[in-house]
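Escalation from tier 1.

The customer reports that the assembly of two entities below gives different structure tokens on two consecutive runs. Tier 1 could not reproduce it. I'm attaching the input and our single run for tier 2 to review.
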Amino acid sequence: MNAAIRRVQYAVRGPIVTRALELEQELRQGVPKPFKEVIKANIGDAHAMGQKPITFLRQVSALCLFPPLLSDPSFPEDAKARARRLLAACAGQSVGSYSASPGLDVVRADVAQFLQRRDGIPADPNHIFLSSGASEAIVTMLKLLVWGSGRSRTGVLVPLPQYPLYSAALAELEAERLSYSLAEDRAWALDLPELRRALKEGRGHCCPRVLCVINPGNPTGQVQSRECIEEVIKFAYEERLFLMADEVYQDNIYGEGCEFHAFRKVLAQMGPPYSDTVELASFHSLSKGFMGECGFRGGFMEVRNLHPEVLQELSKLVSVRLCPPVPGQILMGALLNPPEPGEPSHQQYQEEKAAVLRALAERARLTEQLLNKIPGIRCNPVQGAMYAFPSIQLPPRACAAAQAAGQPPDLFFCLRLLEGTGICLVPGSGFGQREGTFHFRMTILPPTEKLQLLLEKLGNFYTNFVKEYS
Amino acid sequence: MHRFVLAAKQAAASLGYRGPGDGGKSMLLRYAGSLAAGWPSRGPRLPRPAREWSVRWSTAAKASVVKISEKASREKILTLESMNPLVKALEYAVRGPIVLKAGEIEKELRKGIKKPFTEVIKANIGDAHAMGQRPITFLRQVVALCTYPNLLDSPNFPEDAKKRARRILQGCGGNSLGSYTASPGINCIREDVASYIERRDGGVPADPDNIYLTTGASDGITTILKILVSGGGKSRTGVMIPIPQYPLYSAAISDLDAIQVNYYLDEENCWALDVNELRRSLKEAKAYCNPKVLCIINPGNPTGQVQSRKCTEDVIHFAWEEKLFLLADEVYQDNVYSEGRQFHSFKKILYEMGPEYYNNVELASFHSTSKGYMGECGYRGGYMEVLNLHPEIKGQLVKLLSVRLCPPVSGQAAMDVVVNPPIPGEESYSQFIKEKESVLNNLAKKAKLTEDMFNKIPGMHCSPLQGAMYAFPRIFIPSKAIEEAKVHKMAPDMFYCMKLLEEIGICVVPGSGFGQKEGSYHFRMTILPPTEKLKVLLEKMKDFHIKFLEKYA
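Tier 1 run:
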């Protein structure tokens, strides 16, 4: 079989999740366990943890899926107006038709408008590609960028810790992964000297061509300052690196004084030569934010300063998969055209959105607070995204036991935690971490009471675990 | 030696090429083979061609090269030279140059530019709804209920739809279509697919654990191929595909840098698959690659033939003998029109051939929500059933699927309705059956209409449209037209199709996009436009063809 596939790992759904599913099965079969349910705090899936979808978005979707509902009086006019507009853009007025491969024209135009409103910087709909979640677009871009062999093989700079889609994609494409470490002692800051070091080292054995940034970070949650973004852009310009900005958590900002600055905005505002030279792809998704619509697989990317021929090749590449799922495109169209003040759905929409973001901010604070109360566990401020990524001390005897079991120590811990409490987290080794340090990633998504309970159980288990292996 | 082949050889010798360790010879052979098959030439698949390589593959590219060197700004990181060569080599004719041209013409029409027609008919792609086919009411009801569960309280939705919606939602995290599902798909839907397969195949057992929901069938096909392609040089995986084929296969093979191994369907015999031809193809391929995979499309695309039971048995026996992994693309299983033709799934025949075959032959079968009577292309729903996969391979498959998280959940829901439709006695049954039969009868009528009409046209021959959604007639192109096509740097059938598009406003795909025997020309047209429109179109095509023959006599 394909050897590259064998090297692919995706920890978020890796062995720990397999075990979690087995345990759920056992619980269903009535096998007695020290817990009543498995809490899947491993994956950034808000609805699975009880978050409700935004009503307006689902109304527009349902109207498009089943147009007879357009005569149903219980649906508001503003939702119907958006549905009619989207349906008119679908071939045969059906969401069952394939769309154009880069996505429905009208939604691409909406994305362009959205970007302009958000950043004050215009966007060209022709440079926007809708995708099946952000993941698909990220993999597509990487595919274009990976070539060469031996010392001329593409190297891709990715943060450490990183979201393991990147490492998986690079393993599959047989590209060189070049890790740049985020500074844990400074709230996971991105350091230019570290970027430079990683690049220099990379040049020794491959051809670094791409720099991936995740902002807000996953799993680390840091929100980059504007200055930092400018430095990264300058660096990319000087070192001739293609910039990929994964910005799917742009709506999830909690930290005091933290603000989301889109790479495309900063790039444009820096003016020439940067603004018309640095090649940039930015990614967004329906899965996070306040929408949490993971299952719809909706997303988009905007590319800037791409060679027109490459743009053609990109269009050709996406045409083979025909088109992104149309229901996801419809939902994106609804998201980018929310109810305006004065429209019937406006108030409810704003309330629902604010409630979700408020709850997430609360849980971010709570999680950070409670984790930091546990001796041996240290959690950086959760400035954004949906996760806490605390460091944990593991006694040498635990590490030895892990080694004997053929597991990284934090996986060993997480598996024991799962068996003992039903709490499913992802070990830091799945994301990458400095040698000799251990972490886990947990989501801040469970409802507040459950979260508190979870953190209490986690704290108790950890303390006992440490005692056991001291 | 043909100059392309020579130049390709030179380029293959250039530095930096990462590929089969044979110095590019296999690629060279592939490329030469593709030329022989009459594919449009786009240059060999090579990064950074040697400086001696002076022939650029398109005039547009040449123009931009000049533009780049004139521009004062620095060279981009990502250019045609500095990009993944496998992507550059990729082609997908169904959405290729002719469709781009159709799009341009549509823009011109919108601007009010006068044409000999008022609209462009996109008969290039198997998209039924785009051509006016209505969705199945029940399917849309269930998915709407899942999307906006408030509707479960609405008196306007039937109970049987609500029941299915509730069941699907229960399988979703937080009872929401917005949650990720398990990577192979929602469990209860996988179970429903297994039940459907058992019913369809007369009781042959299906295990939900062998079923994976996918983002359209395309996703499943490319994923399986991804896992199977390995080795280097002479041991690089060869993938046997029919000629003519649905160009997803050639694109996937190209993308994976695998070796495409062509076996020709027999046009004289209604595009039948001849096992002797399989044997010939395999034998020849063994000289330069390791043929491991055999792809079958049944009913065929673009050719529409429905395989006989005997033919399927022969293919299975061949795969068993030669230890080939079988890919059975069965997305048109509901589109069978010819009297005396019946769909027999590979899985069923395999089972019926007994344990020696059933326990050994590795098989992956694919289905989709995009075709049949549903036409739900936009949902990207599909599934694959795998048999006799090595447990390690299965593990790798699951791992690979997990990286893309899960297939779109609304597509999973749509697939569930396809495999779990209303049954006699249920409230929605009669309307469902009526709608389904209406769609299929309509398609069958249009298939016959199209076949008959094409066969009335001198210089055209259309094989019986036994199934699927396309006509793939052979067209006679006079040598004068072939010459003019060469001048325009186009394959002769591309030239024909471009002219057809410009004069009649119908967009069809040239046979060169699917592959055909050298010296023969075809085009693929869907049978999906509404009947009245189709009749008018076919008349116009007849007039066009006759004029074309006269002009280039």
